[in-house]
Amino acid sequence: MPLVETLIIISLVPALVLLWRGPTAWDRLLAYNTASNRIVIVICLFAVATRKAFYLDVAVGYAALSFLGVVIISRFLERGGGHR
Amino acid sequence: MTLAAYIIMGFGLSFVFIGSLGMLRFRDIYSRLQASGVSDNAGLGLILVGLILHSGWDRHDVTLLLLLLLLLITNPIVTHSISRSAFVQHHREEEDA
Question: Is B75 in Cβ contact with A37 (below 8 Å)?
């Protein structure tokens, strides 16, 4: 179980590289979405590993909020915000 | 840790790494979206399935199922909305230019 967690955390690095390097704002938005999806999975792994059930609710809340955030930011960018 | 859960999570992990490799390798925003959206969905979904099968069924697996459902529904929506906003904005710039 800890192995899977560390591998997922290692797989966060490419998302952060894309967040840093991405030429356009949409690459960064995509990197943010990918990173937060993986963080949700790390929280779930941690919850199952330590037998603490309330962390699962944290993961569900975080997944829902990050989904909202990304959709709202993409609507904002679509309206020509940020770089017009 | 039952063996089946471990194997399923292994597959999920390989999908996640393939996705992050694709995310960095591709040049265009749309192909990056394709790479990361699809493989993220499959990989993280498989890991969640592995977690559900981890130690038999207990009452907390309902939350895991909810999370799997949430992931499988919201991830495509997010990928669509990002690619739509990129397309509309690029299209609008071409019109102005």
Answer: yes
